[in-house]
DNA sequence: CGGCTATATAACCCGAATGGCATGCTGACG
DNA sequence: CGTCAGCATGCCATTCGGGTTATATAGCCG
């Protein structure tokens, strides 16, 4: 699963994630919030789905979309390489926490 | 300064950041590592510069490019909204650390 | 000064991504 | 069963971004 930068580069897709952060939503609901056509929304949802950022739950004709955070966690891991550049004295604690995640006894 | 997702969506630009993470570099050096033309490299560097992700230090005809992490810190702040989705028991500690950054006594 | 080195900018080409409309598909319901 | 609701897909037009080559700019050095 490659890093989802290109998927997140699209403002509408980030807005979808923001909306799904509150609760799962139907396509029609997202369409309304985004202010674009229903097919447009469906296309963005497809991209998000194929990137693993959302998943669908079917309910009759309706589709509930909800978040899947794994790709965001990978993004976070990528960012970690740079994080020491803007965090100061917390570095040691962070390295300790990272180590704990590798071996969480 | 908007979130730099679109800037980071480009693999060559992420590679530039990776290279600059080790040390500042000259344009020619980056060009060689990226395997594209010198103007191509300069274009990417311009985009990175305008996004605040790198800065230049001039030295005669040479330009030393180096990292500027601020936009990455903003990205990190954006990610923070989602982080509770994949971190479990560390949440409380993280909230504590965030609070410390606001009021670091 | 003349020419070379290092980098930036300009002009152009091309593929890909986005947005819209029209249409297809599926399940509910009278 | 026929129709409607909810969503996906196909197709087209347009835009945008990244690549290259050619050229401009600036500073060193002989």
TrEMBL record, chains A, B:
Keyword set includes Transcription regulation: yes
A Pfam short name: HTH_5
Keyword Transcription regulation tagged: yes
Domain HTH arsR-type: 1-87
PROSITE patterns linked: HTH_ARSR_2
UniProt keyword terms in alphabetical order: DNA-binding, Transcription, Transcription regulation
GO molecular function, one term: DNA-binding transcription factor activity
CDD domains: HTH_ARSR
Highest taxon above the source species: Bacteria
NCBIfam families: HTH_metalloreg
Protein name as catalogued: Putative ArsR family transcriptional regulator
